[in-house]
Write a structure and sequence with these properties.
This protein has 128 residues and is mainly α.
Length: 128
């Protein structure tokens, strides 16, 4: 059922009702903060059940350590070996060409950077 409007209530009754409402909201907020304080819950749980937490951590650690010990079978196609050698040779040639190009371009890049830095240093001295 709907409540009657507050027009007939006195000011003291309204203030008391507001105060009760504030107390209820504050109590609910404190309860919510307590429920959402997960770090405190974990600390309390660890204090109360230390053996369980340590054994669970040891089990997870052992599982992680032993999981990669399984050996996987890898099947290699004999035809792919020739193709792999060809790709390896192509990659070697590409790296050699890249190294030669880098050695040729390096002096140009160093000179450019040196000019930029000296221009920047010269401008900053004249401004102050």
């Amino acid at each position: 059922m709907a409540e009657k409007s507050g027009r007939n209530k006195s000011i003291d009754e309204l203030r008391a009702e507001i105060e009760r409402s504030r107390e209820r909201v504050g109590r609910d907020l404190r309860g919510l903060r307590h429920e959402l304080d997960f770090p405190a819950k974990f600390r309390r749980s660890f204090r109360e059940q230390t053996v369980s937490w340590i054994s669970a951590a040891a089990a997870v650690g052992a599982l992680i350590a032993l999981a990669p010990m399984r050996k996987k079978k890898i099947y290699v196609d004999a035809k792919g070996r020739r193709n792999t050698k060809k790709k390896l040779a192509e990659t070697g040639f590409a790296l050699a060409a890249l190294k030669i190009a880098a050695s040729l371009v390096r002096p140009v890049i160093v000179e450019f950077a040196k000019n930029r830095l000296t221009d920047y240093a010269g401008r900053s001295r004249h401004k102050t």
